[in-house]
Amino acid sequence: MHAITPRYCSRTAASFLILALLSLLALPVQAASRPVHVLATTYPVWQLARPLVAGLENVRLDLLIPAATGCPHDYAPTPADLTKVATADMILMNGLGLEAAFASALAQAEAHKVDCSQGIALLADCSDHEEGHGDHHHGGNPHVFTSPAAAAQMAGTMAEALGLACPEQAEAIRNNATALQKDLLNLEKRLAALGAAHPGACVLLQHDSLAYMMRSAGLNVMDVLQEDEEQAPSAARLLECIEHIRKERPVLLIGEPQFSPRPLETLAAETGVPVIQLDSLASGPENTPVNHFEQQMRNNCQLLENALSR
Question: Residue 31, Cβ neighbours under 10 Å: how many?
């Protein structure tokens, strides 16, 4: 027997031991590098959260309710939706009843849940003219995100929660939030200037999702044409609005791209009051720039300024 045999075995054993130790040392690094799975329940919450985590490799942001759904009053969760809820690390919610379809799944989820509308001064839910439908919202009008100032507050709530979940990226998240909030608060000032320039002016809305934007703009909402997204207003409701418009003389009739334009076109033809469309961002395309929310809010502001300057 040659003396080299034991030495060969010793080196081999040492190599295996070193590899095993390296594998053990690598485990915590691999676990720590797993992205934090953040789930935004609704389209506007998702669009607000996107610029906050832009460029962060350790955060995975998903949208729960499909982008084209709109206000998810009667949305039926799919098995894939429920899996997203169950496996998320953090869930960013709009609150105020918009996630009612997921109430049971959210209650059981172990994820950290963030109510992004918490602390925002609410408007009453406009349901005076519902036609055969119950009140879907609880605790006030849930479309707080249409106000730039409220959206800025929501972004701050999100950033605080995200920073705690990703402490190593907290500074980047705060910087992203500060930039977004600055842009949104500048838009809030532009809207407020409209109200100051048109004191006492009122508008008719197609749906109450834009009520918070009108509050920011200092414009009174004299009426809301329809509460239900799926059911068009009846002939009787249109006649009622025509009489109300002739009495109050609003400066604008304001619709949304999520609704058919025909009812407001009918009102405009009968009363001579101009119609514009503003995007509430309750739904929309999924493939958009990361600053889509701010862009659409800026466009809304410009459309209102143009319409009121005629």
Answer: 8
